[in-house]
Write a structure and sequence with these properties.
heterodimer; A: 564 residues; alpha+beta; MetI-like fold; 6-stranded antiparallel sheet; 5-stranded antiparallel sheet; 17 helices; 14% strand; B: 283 residues; Rossmann fold; 6-stranded mixed sheet
């Protein structure tokens, strides 16, 4: 001590409490986000991991075989406990009437009428994991859980010993699946092409009817030529149909006889089995193989089983396409509006009102935008387009109904305030010295804006676009009424001219989550899919944002520089 | 230091003022050389506050003329009137006229964009455009639609050499101008200003944001530009005015106090106010 005591600074003056308060706020926000992400990532990544099949025998003698999906605790009423055997009742009373139960995914819906079965823990006599139990993922009717009995060709068993059956199954299964994919391919592309041509002919005749009238010579000519071409096409159609039938007949020859735990049997075609594995015999690498194969199917295939199984490729495609079209629409629109607001309009009360209105637009419930999109884009704009360009297709609408273009434009409308606000700020941040420099060189106002102000503001515009994309890609409500559907058999891009079909309805990951999780007849089976799809949507938006951020950083390096 | 400007009286408003008598009674000339720019009876108001009072001034061709004076004396305002940059400020009103090479600047049928192409300007804050060094130099040609590569290349080399920057940047002409040092950026701005061969080169405190070494280079450059261009430079730094200018005008509170050869202003000023300022007694 050197004689004089230092003056104490009080706590608030030093700001310690504020550091804790602000730090705490950030920690809380981070925890919530991290918690949500962890939940989604954990559940999303674990969905496809194959589980063991538990064979559970209850005290009443019933036997169930299935995957243990999850467990929960519940409380029994005293009457229910009184009805139980004395020993079990005593145990439950000791645990305050709380019992546990497990959800078994028993499958075999076509035989039992159930996909899942709750089993109370206190009623379980024993649980085994039979090595010969198999899990079959089928094209329809959900999973089959049970045992292989026989492989049959033309109704005659070619193998009935377990080992022989398994090897025969493996031998025949790949060829059967190939036949299945072959028929699917023929149906989609070849029959699709013939159908498209028949539809084109029909439209040609209809167009002639609209233009020249039903009694005109021209209509008769067109109708005759169309009828002739239709005959050719129908012959073609019949040929293709015969080929498909041949494959189907071949396919129906190889079947597999399955037995469920209760003893009932079921004969199914080999081609209907998507994937089969002996769940209790898999080592870790084989489990990884099943896991990987399910992911591949998820990312590259179409949905099956009312979207609760299979892949989401059409939804991934739809989401990305919609977001890109939205960005293409919203960026120029927002930038042009912001340019006028900031550079040309006379600042005053009217402009402030416009600015407030734009900002408030961001607060309008998104479903309202959906209703506007449906009314304006689909019915007014789309209806007019149909009347002018697609009259021959009426009354079935082309653009006059929900589609990927209208959904994208609706979202563009929804996100345009974000772009306008961000662009305006970026324009305001362009140094006045730069503008003056340009004017002093003899540039006009527009030349200054185009050559100096806009490039310099581009990174800010990109920031707005990133925010708009994040908002738009995660939006579902307005899409539900402007073009998103549960299942879209045709992608908006395909091999038929003009290749890009912006009028088509599409699938979307956000809507897929809602549909699988809450609209599915078998929602328990869809639950894991909800997490996986959510994970995918988050990854997809992250990816879109990262690419936008990459572009922004490049622009920043180019136009703003690191000096000063 | 006082920067309060005199409030204009009602009678001093431009609308009530009689048209400036032409030819003006006395336009101070410091030499019998050819004159490049004449300022006649020039007044300027920011809203209600008058910033320039009856300025009459004539700048000789091919020489460097410095405008000095304390902050707020109107020297920057005057230089920004020469290329009509003050038009961009809504509240500015002016009265009087200037003649660039005998042609009116504030006349009714003057094309401002054409006028600005006849003048080049270098600013206090370096302001290279967000593009390559090459594109910066030829900006004024580009906006005129000049796309012939031979002409552009030639302009870039000539301008950068005159701005004493060529040797430093000739190997990276197509890199961003924003990655240069502050002094290089300012010399680039000078190259950009002289690329279009302006009739007069305006410099608004070009060294005030630079370190002493960069400042020395710019001063050296200004000295070399004498003869090639007519330079009007606003500066706060009196040593700078002595080092690189031929003539000096001293402004105080919006009025031209004294205008003469630089040597005379700094060694033997004719007015007490000038003497007080250049000797550092105020300002």
């Amino acid at each position: 001590m050197n004689g004089h005591s230092p003056r104490r600074t009080n706590l608030t003056a030093r700001g310690e409490p504020m550091v804790w308060l602000t730090g705490g706020g950030l920690a809380l926000a981070t925890l919530m986000i991290a918690g949500l992400l962890l939940l989604v990532i954990f559940n999303g990544t674990m969905t496809f991991w194959p589980k063991r099949l538990a064979q559970t025998t209850t005290t009443t003698g019933a036997t169930y075989l299935g995957e243990v999906t999850r467990g929960e605790r519940f409380r029994l009423s005293p009457e229910q406990i009184a009805a139980l055997p004395a020993e079990a009742a005593a145990t439950l009373r000791a645990t305050d009437n709380v019992a546990a139960r497990k959800l078994l995914r028993t499958g075999n819906f076509d035989l039992t009428g159930d996909h899942f079965k709750w089993i109370n823990s206190h009623e379980i006599a024993r649980t085994e994991f039979p090595l010969e139990a198999w899990m079959f993922e089928r094209q329809e009717w959900g999973v089959f859980v049970g045992f292989m009995e026989e492989v049959r060709v033309d109704g005659v068993a070619v193998a009935s010993e377990p080992a022989a059956t398994e090897s025969k199954f493996r031998e025949f299964h790949k060829a059967a699946r190939d036949r299945y994919h072959q028929t699917r391919h023929i149906e989609k592309s070849e029959i699709g092409a013939v159908n498209a041509r028949i539809e084109k002919l029909r439209l040609e005749r209809r167009r002639a009817e609209l233009l020249s009238g039903r009694d005109s010579a021209r209509f008769r000519d067109v109708a005759a030529s169309v009828a002739e071409q239709e005959r050719v096409l129908e012959a073609e159609y019949a040929t293709i149909g015969a080929r498909v039938l041949a494959i189907r007949t071949e396919d129906a020859r190889t079947t597999l006889l399955l037995r469920e735990i209760g003893g009932r049997t079921k004969e199914i075609k080999l081609s209907e089995i998507v994937r089969a594995y002996p769940a209790n015999r898999l080592n870790w690498f084989q489990q990884l193989g099943v896991y990987g194969s399910r992911w591949v199917e998820f990312l590259t295939d179409e949905p099956r089983e009312a979207n609760t199984e299979g892949g989401v490729l059409p939804a991934i495609f739809g989401t990305v396409m919609m977001t890109l079209i939205m960005s293409l629409a919203v960026a120029p629109f927002g930038v042009i509006a912001a340019l006028y607001l900031r550079e040309y309009a006379k600042q005053g009360p009217l402009l402030s009102a416009v600015r407030i209105a734009v900002n408030n637009l961001a607060g309008v419930p998104s479903i309202v935008f959906g209703v506007f999109g449906l009314g304006f884009f689909c019915y007014v704009v789309g209806g007019s387009i149909d009347n002018v360009f697609f009259a021959e297709r009426l009354p079935s609408p082309t653009y006059g109904t929900g589609g990927v273009l209208w959904a994208s434009l609706t979202l563009a409308l929804l996100t345009v305030p974000v772009v306008i606000v961000a662009t305006e700020e970026a324009l305001a941040a362009v140094p006045g010295s730069m503008r003056e420099g340009s004017y002093a060189c003899g540039a006009s106002k527009w030349q200054t804006i185009r050559r100096i102000v806009l490039p310099r503001a581009m990174p800010g515009v990109m920031t707005g676009l990133i925010l708009a994309m994040a908002r738009g890609a995660g939006e579902v409500a307005p899409l539900m009424i402007t073009g998103v559907v549960k299942l879209a058999p045709e992608l908006p891009v395909d091999g038929h001219w003009p290749f890009l079909h912006l009028h088509r309805s599409f699938m979307h990951l956000g809507f897929h989550i809602y549909d699988v999780g809450f609209q599915s007849p078998n929602s328990e089976a869809g639950k894991p899919m909800v997490f996986t799809t959510t994970l995918l949507l988050i990854l997809l938006i992250g990816l879109l944002n990262l690419s936008a951020i990459y572009i922004r950083n490049r622009l920043r390096r180019r136009y703003i520089g690191a000096q000063f | 230091m006082t920067t309060v400007l005199e409030k204009p009286t009602a009678a001093a408003g431009p609308r009530d003022r009689q048209p400036a008598p032409t030819p003006p009674p006395t336009v101070p000339r410091v030499a019998d050389e050819e004159q490049i720019l004449e300022v006649r009876q020039f007044n300027l108001w920011y809203g209600a506050a008058q910033a320039l009072f009856d300025i009459n001034l004539s700048f000789p061709k091919g020489k460097v003329t410095a405008l000095i004076g304390p902050s707020g004396c109107g020297k920057s305002t005057l230089i920004r009137c020469i290329n009509r940059l003050n038009d961009l400020v809504d509240i500015v009103r002016i009265d009087g006229d200037m003649l660039l090479n005998g042609r009116s600047i504030y006349g009714r049928d003057v094309d401002v964009i054409e006028l600005r192409k006849r003048t080049g300007m270098v600013f206090q804050k370096t302001n290279p455009f967000p593009m390559s060094i090459y594109e910066n130099v030829i900006y004024s040609l580009r906006i005129d639609g000049e796309n012939r590569k031979s002409i552009l290349d030639e302009t870039v080399e000539r301008s950068l050499q005159r701005a004493a920057l060529w040797d430093e940047v000739k190997d990276r002409l197509h890199q961003s101008a924003l990655q240069m040092s502050g002094g290089q950026q300012q010399r680039l701005c000078i190259a950009r200003a002289i690329a279009a061969e302006p009739e007069v080169l305006l410099m608004d405190e070009p060294c005030s944001a630079l370190d002493p070494i960069a400042t020395a280079k710019i001063e050296e450059l200004i000295y070399q530009l004498r003869g090639l261009y007519s330079v009007i430079i606003v500066t706060h730094n009196m040593q700078q005015a002595t080092r690189c200018s031929d003539y000096t005008a001293f402004f105080y509170l919006g009025k031209l106090v004294e205008y003469d050869a630089t040597e005379k202003i700094f060694t033997n000023p004719g007015k007490k106010q000038t003497e007080d300022y250049v000797s550092g007694r105020f300002g």
